[in-house]
Protein backbone atom coordinates (compact mmCIF):
# COMPACT_ATOMS: atom_id res chain seq x y z
CA UNK A 1 0.00 0.00 0.00
CA UNK A 2 2.64 2.41 1.03
CA UNK A 3 4.76 1.45 -1.96
CA UNK A 4 1.89 2.21 -4.30
CA UNK A 5 1.38 5.59 -2.74
CA UNK A 6 4.98 6.56 -3.25
CA UNK A 7 4.86 5.33 -6.81
CA UNK A 8 1.79 7.31 -7.79
CA UNK A 9 3.13 10.39 -6.09
CA UNK A 10 6.32 10.21 -8.04
CA UNK A 11 4.81 9.52 -11.40
CA UNK A 12 4.22 13.06 -12.60
CA UNK A 13 7.46 14.61 -11.37
CA UNK A 14 9.31 11.60 -12.76
CA UNK A 15 8.06 12.24 -16.25
CA UNK A 16 9.04 15.86 -15.95
CA UNK A 17 12.41 14.89 -14.54
CA UNK A 18 13.06 12.64 -17.53
CA UNK A 19 11.99 15.39 -19.89
CA UNK A 20 14.43 17.74 -18.16
CA UNK A 21 17.25 15.19 -18.32
CA UNK A 22 16.55 14.66 -22.01
CA UNK A 23 16.60 18.36 -22.87
CA UNK A 24 19.66 19.07 -20.70
CA UNK A 25 21.81 16.36 -22.26
CA UNK A 26 20.46 16.95 -25.74
CA UNK A 27 21.79 20.50 -25.52
CA UNK A 28 25.12 19.25 -24.14
CA UNK A 29 25.39 16.76 -27.01
CA UNK A 30 24.47 19.18 -29.77
CA UNK A 31 26.48 22.17 -28.53
CA UNK A 32 29.69 20.48 -27.43
CA UNK A 33 32.29 20.50 -30.18
CA UNK A 34 35.64 18.79 -29.88
CA UNK A 35 34.55 15.71 -27.96
CA UNK A 36 33.57 15.01 -24.37
CA UNK A 37 36.20 16.95 -22.39
CA UNK A 38 35.16 20.23 -24.02
CA UNK A 39 31.55 19.52 -23.02
CA UNK A 40 32.28 19.54 -19.26
CA UNK A 41 31.45 23.27 -18.84
CA UNK A 42 28.20 22.69 -20.76
CA UNK A 43 27.25 19.87 -18.42
CA UNK A 44 28.04 22.14 -15.48
CA UNK A 45 25.81 24.84 -16.95
CA UNK A 46 22.83 22.46 -17.21
CA UNK A 47 23.30 20.32 -14.12
CA UNK A 48 24.43 22.89 -11.56
CA UNK A 49 23.25 26.27 -12.82
CA UNK A 50 20.06 25.54 -14.72
CA UNK A 51 18.42 22.51 -13.10
CA UNK A 52 20.26 22.61 -9.76
CA UNK A 53 20.48 18.83 -9.55
CA UNK A 54 23.86 19.16 -7.87
CA UNK A 55 25.96 21.63 -5.92
CA UNK A 56 29.26 22.89 -7.30
CA UNK A 57 31.22 20.71 -4.87
CA UNK A 58 29.43 17.55 -5.85
CA UNK A 59 29.85 18.32 -9.53
CA UNK A 60 33.60 18.71 -9.26
CA UNK A 61 33.63 15.46 -7.27
CA UNK A 62 31.84 13.75 -10.14
CA UNK A 63 34.32 15.12 -12.69
CA UNK A 64 37.24 13.93 -10.54
CA UNK A 65 35.53 10.57 -10.17
CA UNK A 66 34.98 10.25 -13.92
CA UNK A 67 38.66 10.97 -14.45
CA UNK A 68 39.68 8.01 -12.29
CA UNK A 69 38.08 5.77 -14.91
CA UNK A 70 39.09 5.32 -18.53
CA UNK A 71 36.79 5.85 -21.48
CA UNK A 72 34.91 8.78 -22.97
CA UNK A 73 34.20 11.41 -20.34
CA UNK A 74 31.05 12.94 -21.83
CA UNK A 75 29.05 9.75 -21.62
CA UNK A 76 30.46 8.88 -18.21
CA UNK A 77 29.19 12.21 -16.89
CA UNK A 78 25.82 11.82 -18.63
CA UNK A 79 25.44 8.25 -17.40
CA UNK A 80 26.47 8.93 -13.83
CA UNK A 81 24.46 12.13 -13.41
CA UNK A 82 21.41 10.53 -15.05
CA UNK A 83 21.79 7.59 -12.68
CA UNK A 84 22.19 9.85 -9.63
CA UNK A 85 19.01 11.80 -10.27
CA UNK A 86 16.73 9.19 -11.86
CA UNK A 87 18.21 5.70 -11.57
CA UNK A 88 19.08 3.36 -14.41
CA UNK A 89 16.37 4.83 -16.64
CA UNK A 90 17.89 8.25 -16.08
CA UNK A 91 21.33 6.99 -17.09
CA UNK A 92 20.01 5.42 -20.28
CA UNK A 93 17.98 8.53 -21.07
CA UNK A 94 20.94 10.90 -20.61
CA UNK A 95 23.32 8.75 -22.67
CA UNK A 96 20.89 8.17 -25.53
CA UNK A 97 19.99 11.83 -26.00
CA UNK A 98 23.62 12.94 -25.91
CA UNK A 99 24.81 10.21 -28.28
CA UNK A 100 22.12 9.24 -30.78
CA UNK A 101 21.46 12.54 -32.63
CA UNK A 102 25.13 13.08 -33.45
CA UNK A 103 25.62 9.44 -34.53
CA UNK A 104 22.78 9.85 -37.02
CA UNK A 105 24.34 13.06 -38.37
CA UNK A 106 27.69 11.31 -38.65
CA UNK A 107 26.31 8.33 -40.58
CA UNK A 108 24.32 10.53 -42.97
CA UNK A 109 27.33 12.77 -43.65
CA UNK A 110 29.82 9.96 -44.24
CA UNK A 111 27.47 7.90 -46.40
CA UNK A 112 26.75 10.95 -48.53
CA UNK A 113 30.50 11.20 -48.99
CA UNK A 114 30.95 7.50 -49.76
CA UNK A 115 28.16 7.35 -52.35
CA UNK A 116 29.63 10.31 -54.22
CA UNK A 117 33.23 9.14 -54.11
CA UNK A 118 33.42 8.50 -57.88
CA UNK A 119 33.03 12.21 -58.61
CA UNK A 120 36.62 13.54 -59.01
CA UNK A 121 35.85 16.80 -57.18
CA UNK A 122 34.45 14.91 -54.18
CA UNK A 123 37.50 12.69 -54.11
CA UNK A 124 39.78 15.71 -54.19
CA UNK A 125 37.79 17.27 -51.36
CA UNK A 126 38.10 14.11 -49.28
CA UNK A 127 41.86 13.94 -49.89
CA UNK A 128 42.27 17.57 -48.87
CA UNK A 129 40.80 16.77 -45.46
CA UNK A 130 43.54 14.28 -44.56
CA UNK A 131 46.27 16.89 -43.90
CA UNK A 132 43.83 18.88 -41.74
CA UNK A 133 43.15 15.81 -39.62
CA UNK A 134 46.90 15.21 -39.38
CA UNK A 135 47.28 18.74 -37.99
CA UNK A 136 44.38 18.29 -35.56
CA UNK A 137 45.90 15.08 -34.19
CA UNK A 138 49.30 16.75 -34.03
CA UNK A 139 47.85 19.64 -32.01
CA UNK A 140 46.14 17.18 -29.66
CA UNK A 141 49.44 15.30 -29.29
CA UNK A 142 51.42 18.46 -28.49
CA UNK A 143 48.73 19.46 -26.01
CA UNK A 144 49.12 16.09 -24.26
CA UNK A 145 52.91 16.41 -24.25
CA UNK A 146 52.68 19.91 -22.78
CA UNK A 147 50.26 18.81 -20.06
CA UNK A 148 52.51 15.88 -19.14
CA UNK A 149 55.60 18.08 -19.06
CA UNK A 150 53.87 20.53 -16.76
CA UNK A 151 52.40 17.93 -14.43
CA UNK A 152 55.32 15.53 -13.97
CA UNK A 153 58.40 17.29 -15.30
CA UNK A 154 60.00 17.19 -18.74
CA UNK A 155 62.60 14.54 -17.95
CA UNK A 156 60.04 11.90 -17.00
CA UNK A 157 57.81 12.90 -19.91
CA UNK A 158 60.64 12.53 -22.43
CA UNK A 159 61.60 9.13 -21.04
CA UNK A 160 58.03 7.83 -21.30
CA UNK A 161 57.63 9.34 -24.77
CA UNK A 162 60.81 7.67 -25.97
CA UNK A 163 60.08 4.31 -24.35
CA UNK A 164 56.54 4.13 -25.69
CA UNK A 165 57.71 5.20 -29.16
CA UNK A 166 60.26 2.38 -29.19
CA UNK A 167 57.75 -0.13 -27.82
CA UNK A 168 54.89 0.71 -30.16
CA UNK A 169 56.61 1.82 -33.38
CA UNK A 170 59.80 -0.24 -33.45
CA UNK A 171 58.83 -3.35 -31.52
CA UNK A 172 55.19 -3.19 -32.68
CA UNK A 173 53.79 -3.88 -29.24
CA UNK A 174 50.03 -3.30 -29.05
CA UNK A 175 49.21 -0.03 -27.21
CA UNK A 176 46.97 -1.99 -24.84
CA UNK A 177 49.99 -3.79 -23.39
CA UNK A 178 51.97 -0.57 -23.09
CA UNK A 179 49.10 1.05 -21.17
CA UNK A 180 48.60 -2.05 -19.03
CA UNK A 181 52.29 -1.99 -18.11
CA UNK A 182 51.74 1.55 -16.81
CA UNK A 183 48.99 0.18 -14.55
CA UNK A 184 51.46 -2.34 -13.19
CA UNK A 185 54.25 0.21 -12.71
CA UNK A 186 51.95 2.66 -10.95
CA UNK A 187 50.29 0.16 -8.65
CA UNK A 188 53.31 -2.05 -7.93
CA UNK A 189 54.60 0.11 -5.04
CA UNK A 190 51.11 -0.02 -3.49
CA UNK A 191 50.98 -3.80 -3.54
CA UNK A 192 54.54 -4.08 -2.26
CA UNK A 193 53.74 -1.79 0.65
CA UNK A 194 50.68 -3.83 1.53
CA UNK A 195 52.72 -7.04 1.49
CA UNK A 196 55.33 -5.55 3.78
CA UNK A 197 52.77 -4.59 6.39
CA UNK B 1 31.39 -13.20 -34.91
CA UNK B 2 31.35 -9.73 -36.42
CA UNK B 3 29.50 -8.44 -33.33
CA UNK B 4 32.18 -9.91 -31.08
CA UNK B 5 34.87 -8.20 -33.18
CA UNK B 6 33.00 -4.91 -33.05
CA UNK B 7 32.62 -5.28 -29.31
CA UNK B 8 36.35 -5.93 -28.80
CA UNK B 9 37.40 -3.17 -31.19
CA UNK B 10 35.61 -0.59 -29.02
CA UNK B 11 35.89 -2.26 -25.63
CA UNK B 12 39.69 -1.95 -25.65
CA UNK B 13 39.76 1.81 -26.43
CA UNK B 14 36.88 2.25 -23.95
CA UNK B 15 38.76 0.75 -21.00
CA UNK B 16 42.26 2.02 -21.90
CA UNK B 17 41.57 5.54 -23.18
CA UNK B 18 42.41 7.73 -20.22
CA UNK B 19 41.65 11.42 -20.73
CA UNK B 20 38.27 11.22 -22.46
CA UNK B 21 37.09 10.46 -25.98
CA UNK B 22 39.78 12.25 -28.02
CA UNK B 23 42.51 10.10 -26.45
CA UNK B 24 40.70 7.03 -27.73
CA UNK B 25 41.12 8.18 -31.37
CA UNK B 26 44.52 6.48 -31.86
CA UNK B 27 43.36 3.40 -29.96
CA UNK B 28 40.31 3.09 -32.22
CA UNK B 29 42.55 3.57 -35.28
CA UNK B 30 44.75 0.76 -34.03
CA UNK B 31 41.79 -1.64 -33.92
CA UNK B 32 39.72 -0.46 -36.87
CA UNK B 33 42.49 0.21 -39.41
CA UNK B 34 45.52 -1.81 -38.28
CA UNK B 35 43.94 -4.82 -36.65
CA UNK B 36 40.59 -5.51 -38.33
CA UNK B 37 41.22 -3.64 -41.59
CA UNK B 38 37.66 -2.29 -41.75
CA UNK B 39 38.85 1.06 -43.07
CA UNK B 40 41.82 2.69 -44.76
CA UNK B 41 43.67 5.60 -43.17
CA UNK B 42 41.96 7.86 -45.71
CA UNK B 43 38.51 6.70 -44.58
CA UNK B 44 39.54 6.92 -40.95
CA UNK B 45 40.66 10.50 -41.34
CA UNK B 46 37.39 11.35 -43.10
CA UNK B 47 35.65 9.94 -40.06
CA UNK B 48 37.78 11.98 -37.64
CA UNK B 49 37.18 15.09 -39.74
CA UNK B 50 33.43 14.53 -39.71
CA UNK B 51 33.59 13.80 -36.00
CA UNK B 52 35.40 17.06 -35.34
CA UNK B 53 33.04 19.06 -37.52
CA UNK B 54 29.95 17.68 -35.78
CA UNK B 55 29.01 18.26 -32.15
CA UNK B 56 28.82 15.60 -29.44
CA UNK B 57 31.20 13.07 -27.91
CA UNK B 58 33.75 11.87 -30.46
CA UNK B 59 34.29 8.29 -29.26
CA UNK B 60 30.62 7.35 -29.57
CA UNK B 61 30.33 9.03 -32.96
CA UNK B 62 33.18 6.87 -34.26
CA UNK B 63 31.69 3.77 -32.61
CA UNK B 64 28.28 4.52 -34.12
CA UNK B 65 29.61 4.98 -37.62
CA UNK B 66 31.95 1.98 -37.65
CA UNK B 67 29.26 -0.19 -36.04
CA UNK B 68 26.73 0.82 -38.68
CA UNK B 69 29.21 0.43 -41.51
CA UNK B 70 30.10 -3.11 -40.41
CA UNK B 71 26.82 -4.51 -39.13
CA UNK B 72 23.91 -2.07 -39.37
CA UNK B 73 21.79 -0.85 -36.47
CA UNK B 74 22.72 -3.76 -34.20
CA UNK B 75 26.36 -2.93 -34.95
CA UNK B 76 25.78 0.61 -33.66
CA UNK B 77 24.27 -0.71 -30.46
CA UNK B 78 27.14 -3.15 -29.86
CA UNK B 79 29.86 -0.58 -30.63
CA UNK B 80 28.35 2.21 -28.53
CA UNK B 81 27.64 -0.19 -25.67
CA UNK B 82 31.25 -1.43 -25.73
CA UNK B 83 32.49 2.18 -25.69
CA UNK B 84 30.26 3.51 -22.94
CA UNK B 85 29.06 0.74 -20.67
CA UNK B 86 32.16 -0.93 -19.17
CA UNK B 87 33.71 2.18 -17.64
CA UNK B 88 30.33 3.63 -16.63
CA UNK B 89 29.20 0.43 -14.93
CA UNK B 90 32.55 0.15 -13.14
CA UNK B 91 32.28 3.77 -12.06
CA UNK B 92 28.81 3.32 -10.57
CA UNK B 93 29.63 -0.07 -9.04
CA UNK B 94 32.88 1.08 -7.46
CA UNK B 95 31.51 4.46 -6.45
CA UNK B 96 32.34 4.27 -2.76
CA UNK B 97 35.82 2.88 -3.40
CA UNK B 98 36.58 5.46 -6.07
CA UNK B 99 35.29 8.31 -3.92
CA UNK B 100 37.97 7.39 -1.40
CA UNK B 101 40.69 7.25 -4.04
CA UNK B 102 39.72 10.07 -6.38
CA UNK B 103 42.39 12.31 -4.89
CA UNK B 104 44.87 9.46 -4.56
CA UNK B 105 48.27 10.11 -6.12
CA UNK B 106 48.20 6.63 -7.65
CA UNK B 107 45.09 7.38 -9.65
CA UNK B 108 46.46 10.74 -10.69
CA UNK B 109 49.76 9.16 -11.72
CA UNK B 110 47.88 6.73 -13.92
CA UNK B 111 46.46 9.53 -16.07
CA UNK B 112 49.79 11.34 -16.03
CA UNK B 113 51.79 8.35 -17.22
CA UNK B 114 49.29 7.29 -19.85
CA UNK B 115 49.04 10.74 -21.45
CA UNK B 116 52.50 10.63 -23.13
CA UNK B 117 51.72 7.18 -24.54
CA UNK B 118 48.58 8.51 -26.18
CA UNK B 119 50.63 11.48 -27.39
CA UNK B 120 53.07 9.12 -29.14
CA UNK B 121 50.18 7.30 -30.81
CA UNK B 122 48.74 10.62 -31.96
CA UNK B 123 52.11 11.80 -33.28
CA UNK B 124 52.62 8.57 -35.21
CA UNK B 125 49.16 9.01 -36.72
CA UNK B 126 50.01 12.60 -37.63
CA UNK B 127 53.03 11.41 -39.60
CA UNK B 128 51.14 8.53 -41.20
CA UNK B 129 48.33 10.80 -42.33
CA UNK B 130 50.74 13.46 -43.59
CA UNK B 131 52.56 10.76 -45.57
CA UNK B 132 49.29 9.45 -47.03
CA UNK B 133 48.31 12.97 -48.07
CA UNK B 134 51.77 13.53 -49.57
CA UNK B 135 51.34 10.42 -51.72
CA UNK B 136 47.82 11.23 -52.85
CA UNK B 137 47.80 15.01 -53.42
CA UNK B 138 51.52 15.81 -53.59
CA UNK B 139 53.80 17.59 -51.16
CA UNK B 140 52.92 21.16 -52.20
CA UNK B 141 49.20 20.84 -51.44
CA UNK B 142 49.91 18.82 -48.30
CA UNK B 143 52.24 21.49 -46.94
CA UNK B 144 49.90 24.35 -47.87
CA UNK B 145 46.94 22.68 -46.17
CA UNK B 146 48.91 21.62 -43.09
CA UNK B 147 50.48 25.01 -42.48
CA UNK B 148 47.20 26.77 -43.25
CA UNK B 149 45.23 24.46 -40.95
CA UNK B 150 47.75 24.88 -38.14
CA UNK B 151 47.65 28.68 -38.35
CA UNK B 152 43.85 28.79 -38.57
CA UNK B 153 43.32 26.35 -35.71
CA UNK B 154 46.03 27.45 -33.29
CA UNK B 155 46.78 31.09 -34.09
CA UNK B 156 43.39 32.39 -35.16
CA UNK B 157 41.38 29.88 -33.13
CA UNK B 158 38.99 29.21 -36.00
CA UNK B 159 36.42 26.50 -35.35
CA UNK B 160 37.51 23.06 -36.69
CA UNK B 161 34.30 22.77 -38.73
CA UNK B 162 35.22 25.91 -40.71
CA UNK B 163 38.82 24.78 -41.19
CA UNK B 164 37.56 21.50 -42.62
CA UNK B 165 35.18 23.45 -44.92
CA UNK B 166 38.10 25.56 -46.16
CA UNK B 167 40.08 22.39 -46.92
CA UNK B 168 37.07 20.99 -48.81
CA UNK B 169 36.90 24.14 -50.92
CA UNK B 170 40.67 23.94 -51.54
CA UNK B 171 40.25 20.35 -52.71
CA UNK B 172 37.38 21.26 -55.03
CA UNK B 173 39.18 24.25 -56.51
CA UNK B 174 42.36 22.23 -57.05
CA UNK B 175 40.52 19.89 -59.45
CA UNK B 176 39.74 22.87 -61.71
CA UNK B 177 43.40 23.39 -62.56
Describe this protein's structure:
The complex is a heterodimer of chains A (197) and B (177). Chain A has 197 residues and is mostly helical. Chain A has helices spanning 2-31, 40-50, 56-68, 73-115, 120-152, 154-170, 175-196. Chain B has 177 residues and is mostly helical. Chain B has one domain (2-176). Chain B has 7 helices and no strands. The mean pLDDT of chain B is 89. Classes of the chains: A mainly alpha (197), B mainly alpha (177). Chains A and B meet through helix 1, helix 3, helix 4, helix 5 and helix 6 of A and helix 1, helix 2, helix 3, helix 4 and helix 5 of B.
What distinguishing features does this structure have?
heterodimer, A: 197 residues, mainly alpha, disordered N terminus, B: 177 residues, 0% strand, globular
Tally of separate helices of chain A = 7
Q: Low-confidence stretches of chain A at least 5 residues in length (pLDDT < 50)?
A: 1-9
The parts of chain B where pLDDT drops under 50 for at least 5 residues are none
Please provide the ordered H/E string of secondary-structure elements of chain B: HHHHHHH
Percentage of β-strand residues of chain A:
under 5%
The pLDDT mean of chain A sits at: 85
Number of helices of chain B: 7
How much strand content do the residues of chain B show? under 5%
The count of β-strands of chain B is: 0
Radius of gyration of chain A: 23 Å
In percent, how helical is the residue content of chain A? over 70%
Mean pLDDT rating of chain B:
89
How is the main sheet of chain B built? none
User: Helix amount of chain B, in percent?
Assistant: over 70%
Q: How would you characterize the largest beta sheet of chain A?
A: none
> What's the alpha carbon Rg of chain B, rounded to whole Å?
18 Å
Number of strands of chain A: 0
Shape of chain B: globular
- End-to-end separation of chain A: 53 Å
**SSE succession of chain A:** HHHHHHH
GO molecular function (chain B): chromate transmembrane transporter activity
Subcellular location (chain B): Cell membrane
Organism (chain B): Viridibacillus arvi
Pfam family, one (chain B): Chromate_transp
